[in-house]
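User: Design a sequence. Structure:
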């Protein structure tokens, strides 16, 4: 019987979202929890295995017990597993597609085994087949993989992309299509990446721009579908369609945009997770910086 973690109870503040980072599983998945505690996380994101391998060794009962014990000991909540970077459910290469499909099933099962509520995925790249064909293949693949995985609790989160290369998912309409056509209902939702939406063409550097972007997201997708935000500044310019994360306030978005977003009452219960370079010290500093922006 899968032991699910309890739902996150945001006790941090009436006005601020839980903050965290993507932490390392070196030495075991439980270490991601302990690393998060050391750098001041409320929540974390983790890989459930080596992110550059198609499949991982099955998680043992001891590993799962240690993981849950770490959560109870530290109070750090693991919001999501991020799937492997190799996975492309739109691949036009039969061998790569087969590996991607089975790897995604494996990711769903591992997430369920750990009791983590969400599995974040990059939708995929069509590799020249065209966006329409790519989107159709991804939606169908997610639905079939979910059915084959036979999981009950894991919710898939589609991550917004920058639209680099032939990646789809850079427009809210594309994400909406995948939500609808996957036919998973409440078992699929959205993770917004701030770097990605910015370079895809959704601005939020001023209050007026943020309100327009939020209104557009709500119109096309619905704020109720937003479950996690990856908070990353951008090394690249607005509308560049290039995915390069930067530390908070040091990129093209800047501190004002994050101050506006983090203080929006509509987001007060949405976990915000950093994915930046620089290791634990950078994470610790940027978590403190984000908290200093909160009113």
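Assistant: Done.
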């Amino acid at each position: 019987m899968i032991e699910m973690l309890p739902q996150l109870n945001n006790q941090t503040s009436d006005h601020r979202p839980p903050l965290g980072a993507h932490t390392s599983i070196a030495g075991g998945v439980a270490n991601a929890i302990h690393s998060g505690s050391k750098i001041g996380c409320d929540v974390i994101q983790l890989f459930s295995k080596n992110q550059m391998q198609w499949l991982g060794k099955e998680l043992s009962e001891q590993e799962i017990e240690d993981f849950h014990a770490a959560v109870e000991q530290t109070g750090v909540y693991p919001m999501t597993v991020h799937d492997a970077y190799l996975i492309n459910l739109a691949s036009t290469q039969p061998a790569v597609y087969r590996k991607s499909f089975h790897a995604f099933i494996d990711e769903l099962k591992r997430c369920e085994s750990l009791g983590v509520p969400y599995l974040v995925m990059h939708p995929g790249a069509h590799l020249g087949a065209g966006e329409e064909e790519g989107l159709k293949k991804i939606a169908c693949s997610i639905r079939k993989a979910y059915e084959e995985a036979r999981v009950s609790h894991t919710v898939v989160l589609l991550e917004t992309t920058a639209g680099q290369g032939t990646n789809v998912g850079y427009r809210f309409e594309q994400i909406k299509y995948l939500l609808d056509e996957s036919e998973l209902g409440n078992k699929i939702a959205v993770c917004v990446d701030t770097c990605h939406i910015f370079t895809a063409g959704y601005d939020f550097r001023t209050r007026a721009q943020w309100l327009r972007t939020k209104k557009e997201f709500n119109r096309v997708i619905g704020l109720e579908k937003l479950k996690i935000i990856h908070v990353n500044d951008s090394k690249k310019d607005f509308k560049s369609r290039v995915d390069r994360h930067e530390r908070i306030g040091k990129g093209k978005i800047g501190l004002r945009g994050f101050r506006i977003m983090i203080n929006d009452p509509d987001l007060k219960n949405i976990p915000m997770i950093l994915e930046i370079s620089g290791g634990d010290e950078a994470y610790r500093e940027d978590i403190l910086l984000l908290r200093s922006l909160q009113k």
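The CA atoms of residues 40 and 284 lie 6 Å apart. The mean pLDDT is 95.
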